[in-house]
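testing teh design pipeline on a random one, pls ignore if ur not involved
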């Protein structure tokens, strides 16, 4: 475990910032385990926990504001991409958009904690017509709460997380291989979902709306 502490001290805040950008930019990463590990490392005195929370929240907000702007600019393309890239394709952006429009700020905050929805909230808010300034203020609160929860849990459960990190470091070759396979599998699966969604949309457009069935007179 001692071997990772100097790296954490040198790159910890930058790594957290990057994790925030990747998590809310649609990259196939698992941010929660990283935040738990960061909290455990912070409990050892290597990193400042509030600093890590702010770092990952700042990265997340940059990604969210980018998604918001893209949705306001090219909403149709963002719908296709975001639905396919979502970890939960059943929670597609049209559904999230309707909830953002109906519930507003509370759902933007709550959405950060719903698997498969967190990465869709910013694009949905853009499609729902949220102003960037208002969204940024709400999003900052949501991201700070989200990052504080998982980093705080890592800080509280330092011992079991430290043991898990030691095992992963001791089996680093296996760990790297598993991570690479999972990331590649996720990328391929999400790319296939995007393709299938676009093919289905194209078929629907070509076929046109279904004609209503004729009703015979009684």
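output:
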């Amino acid at each position: 475990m001692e071997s990772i502490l100097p790296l954490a001290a040198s790159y910890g805040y930058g790594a957290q910032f990057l994790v925030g950008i990747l998590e809310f930019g649609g990259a196939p990463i698992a941010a929660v385990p990283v935040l738990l590990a960061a909290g455990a490392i912070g409990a050892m005195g290597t990193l400042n926990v509030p600093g890590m929370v702010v770092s990952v929240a700042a990265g997340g907000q940059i990604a969210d504001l980018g998604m918001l702007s893209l949705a306001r600019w090219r909403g149709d393309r963002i719908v296709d991409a975001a639905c396919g890239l979502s970890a939960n394709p059943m929670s597609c952006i049209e559904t999230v958009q309707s909830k953002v429009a109906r519930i507003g700020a509370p759902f933007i905050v709550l959405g950060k904690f719903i698997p498969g929805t967190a990465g869709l909230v910013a694009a949905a808010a853009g499609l729902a017509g949220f102003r960037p300034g208002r969204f940024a203020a709400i999003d900052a609160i949501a991201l700070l709460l989200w990052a504080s929860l998982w980093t705080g849990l890592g800080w509280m459960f330092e011992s079991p997380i430290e043991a898990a990190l030691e095992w992963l470091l001791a089996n680093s070759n296996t760990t790297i291989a598993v991570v690479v396979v999972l990331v590649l599998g996720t990328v391929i699966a999400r790319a296939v979902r995007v393709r299938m969604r676009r093919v289905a949309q194209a078929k629907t457009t070509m076929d046109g709306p279904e004609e209503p069935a004729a009703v015979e007179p009684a």
